[in-house]
Amino acid sequence: MLLRLFFTVVGCTLLGFLAGLFAFxxxxxxxxxxxxxxxxxxxxxxxxx
Length: 49
Known about the structure:
Blueprint: H1 2-28, H2 38-41
């Protein structure tokens, strides 16, 4: 019983970690202002004063 609980906790933690990595990778690909991919930006946006 204790071993099953341990593996459940470890599995859920690993699943959450991988979901977080995937969400970060997907989020970092898109520009929050215009929605284009970050590879297409190449200096199109300038910092606001």
